[in-house]
Amino acid sequence: MAVGMQQSTMRISLLIRAGLLTLAMAPTPLAARAPAIARLDGSQISRDRVDTIVTEAMKAAHVTGAGVTIFNAGQPVYMKTYGVCDAARNLPFTSDSVVTAASLTKTAFAVMVMQLVQDGIIDLDKPVFRYLPRPLPEYPPYRDLAADPRYRQITMRMLLDHTSGFPNWRRFTDDRKLRIYFPPGSRFAYSGEGIALAQMVVETVTGKSVDALMHARLFGPLGMTQTSMVWEPRFEHNLCNGYNEQGRSLGPERRRKGDAAGSMQTTLRDYSRFVSAILSGKLLDARMRALMFRPQIRIETAHEFPSLSTDTTTENNDIRLSYGLGWGLYFSPFGEAFFKEGHDEGWRHYVVCFEKPRSGVLIMTNSSNGEDIYSTILEETFADTYTPLEWEGFKPREKLPQTPALRKP
Q1: pLDDT at residue 35, as a whole number
Q2: What is the CATH number of domain 59-86+93-226+257-394?
């Protein structure tokens, strides 16, 4: 009898290897076993409903490809991708598709800088010119500042909380010269120029490139294997095209030089690892993490862009809109929240997280229409009606114009 049972077991094993019992032995699909997703207000939503919301929003806004991750208790509980990363070849947008992170790069860079602060390598309040072997205006990118001694007041804190007085980018100004437009530290004005200076200082102090620093301190420890500050040949088979508002391909980006303001190449899966690490209190000690998310400057501007606009508003007083070190901050009925947008031609991304429930949403798209789906996804899948999307220039759904049909190339 034992011999017969042994022979029967062997036959079953052979059938499984041959694939003949695949259906009978297949496990229950993960989606069917997984619990519902917790929304910000404590209600729950099914994965099927999230899927429907995202699909319909993308269709209405003509978004080429997108990925969405929802976090509960610091961990991803929903991660799904939609559409294509290369329409011509009909290649799907996947969680491992490599996209340009645009300004989501700034948050990762800010965390790395805070690690340097934690290690005593950088002092947030030491004027950054003191870290350099030559006066700042002797460096070609900063020669325009020679007649303005206020550059000596600028600190790393001001560069990370966007109060340096710099414009977003000098190329957007009338004469394309770099200027300090207000006393450093006095008000908020989003500035890529400030992050560029922070990068130069960090690279000077450490003697390492921003790419090397990010790999050693963030990407490697978090297992972000498909992420880099520059294009790498190994990304090529998963490299996404960006698409403009009319659905025309802008091609992929192959950046050769690390840019802390926007060059990071990453994936939905990898950036989700980063967000999860932030929510779970990894990467920084408790004191440094609290400092990063402590309001540094209250925001009174009517809109985030144009960054030098002096128009003010009281509309965001109730949510205490402010900026921390690398992140936008606000207060909601569900506690403190932090957020960041990523905006470049063909790339639109958004992340918002809530500290107390350690929950949040990450949206990544390869479409210039991507911003048109933020409010729908945040409100309907996550019950988030508090994030200041209108201040950032992302109008609420009811204020969006009717999206015209795409024109054929």
Answers
A1: 84
A2: 3.40.710.10
